[in-house]
Amino acid sequence: MTPASLAISKAISHRISIIWQIAKFVVTGILNTLVDWGTLTLLIFSFRKYINVEPTYNIISGIAIYSLYKSTSFVVAMINSYYWNKYWTFSKPNTRKAKTEFLQFLVASTIGFAINVGTATCVFSYVRLESFHIDQWGLIGAGFGTLFGLTLNFLAYKFIVFRYQPNHERVTMMIV
Q: CB atoms < 10 A from the CB of 168, how many?
């Protein structure tokens, strides 16, 4: 489905040029989400006993440990994200401003991190249905965190980190 979606996006981008970049951002985001959730799942599965939030355990420490797991998975995905977004999504070659660019990426990602982890932790902590197991609820929280951070990250990466260059790319919309 991904190759078909990219082919359709490429065709549409002849009329609306930003579509191709958004499509690449989405594919990169899917890859990053898989890295994020895969790492989180591995941590939860491997160390589940530390986030047990049964009434006999300290709920606050369980939530804190979940936040640590989610933070770790987010950082692993962020490193993956930098390389894919820099070289594929926004096609930004190495420049002399690489340190500044990476610093901007870290700042934008840190804000995205706060939104992602904060949302995931809130959903995991306060919006829980009995029909889901704790492992599943951890991933549901991660899903909400990902959704809230997605738009912010695209805008920050496009207009701040891998800055829009008018002489390299024109964002136009042709109306038929």
A: 8
Tell me the β-bridge partners of 16. Answer: 173
Could you give the residue ranges of the DSSP H alpha helices within 47-97? 59-84
Among 141, 143, 83, 91, CA closest to 109? 83
CB neighbours of 86 closer than 8 A, spacing ≥ 6? 92, 101, 105, 162
Contact 145, 70 (CB under 8 A): yes
Please write the tens of the pLDDT for every residue from 82-134: 889 988 898 877 666 777 888 899 899 889 888 888 999 888 888 777 777 77
The structure tokens listed for 39 are: 């790492």
Residue 24: closest CA among 74, 88, 109, 70: 88
**Residue % of the chain over a pLDDT of 90:** 12
Q: Judge if pTM exceeds 0.70.
A: no
For residue 80, what are the CA distances in angstroms to 8, 87, 89, 101, 153?
25, 11, 13, 16, 14
Q: Could you give the 3-state DSSP secondary structure of residue 163?
A: coil
Q: For 55, phi and psi rounded to 5 degrees? A: -55, -25
Q: With the CA atoms of 60, 108, 80 and 87 taken in that order, what torsion angle do they form, in degrees rounded to the nearest 10?
A: 170
Q: The tokens of 138 are what?
A: 């951890």
Tracing tokens 């002489």 back to the chain, one arrives at 167
